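Summary: Need help interpreting a holo structure output

Steps to reproduce:
1. Submit the protein chain below together with the SMILES for S-adenosylmethionine.
2. Request a joint structure prediction with the ligand placed.
3. Inspect the structure token block that comes back.

Expected: a single structure record containing both the chain and the bound molecule.
Actual: see attached output.

Input attached:
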Amino acid sequence: MSAAAGPDPGHELRPVTPIAILAALLERVAQELDGTLDGRVHDDLRRAKALAAGLDPYLARCTSPESPALAALAGRTRTHDFGATADGGAPGGLEAEMLSGHVEGQLLKLLVRISGASRALDIGTFTGYSALAMAEAMGPEGRVVACEVDPGVADIAQRAFDASPAGRRISLHIGPALDTLHRLADAGERFDLAFIDADKGGYVSYLAALLDRGLIGPGGLICADNTLLQGTPYLAPDPGSPGAAIADFNLAVAGDARVEQVLLPLRDGVSLIRVLEGQP
Ligand SMILES: C[S@@+](CC[C@H](N)C(=O)[O-])C[C@H]1O[C@@H](n2cnc3c(N)ncnc32)[C@H](O)[C@@H]1O
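--- attached output ---
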């Protein structure tokens, strides 16, 4: 999911990261209390608002720019009418806010380059941003296997892949990602890097499939998006909610002796999970 409105004139994105939500709340409180606060409290509130609202835009300014292909894809996603193309059977409504986007895409590119990954899994592809970002960071022999359940957004992604030289490194599998993962494991496929960004209720199963079936081996990296899910995992999530599913996932990662991990408070939370050496 994306943080806040981008620079394009299209769809105005609602805040969906903890810091952007905090900024919006502080703005609302400031408006409600306008004219009622003494000078010091007013200044503290104004500073708190500026601290929260300025972080994501500053991170974007300090991050290498996205490629023209990724910028075009992000722009198309923001202006797309998802009501018209969303598959009624897809779990959860599709919306432009789901896009990973510039800063996270650049993080994925750096992870590919630093780790030397040449085979990556993209679990939850949406319009294709994360898959294309990883593919752009790979050499000509690189391969990204992208998993997406919704044929409508898969079609948008495939068109973006077809329009970009790096897109030739991506093969898109339409269907439930867990089925695709098990098929890949049955075929003996192995990957250096996996990006988990599909339905939150599936995260624990995706992690299990990647580790138990050896899709990601020792030294390999799993990157999971939305592991702060708008703050809900640490704000007593409702049972059965996506926030509770992410809290379960974070617990499962923390309790798994096969991995070491860190949860970065980047955008909606990104966990980097490395499979330890010495695993079967
Ligand atoms: C947050 S979006 C992914 C964003 C994308 N990674 C990006 O970089 O913009 C989540 C996607 O996961 C897909 N999805 C949900 N459940 C799925 C499943 N069981 N298998 C595969 N894809 C799924 C949704 O249709 C949606 O397109």
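--- end attachment ---

Reviewer comment: Confidence is low (pLDDT under 50) at residues 1-9, 84-91. Residues 39-61 form the longest helix (23 residues).
Status: needs-info
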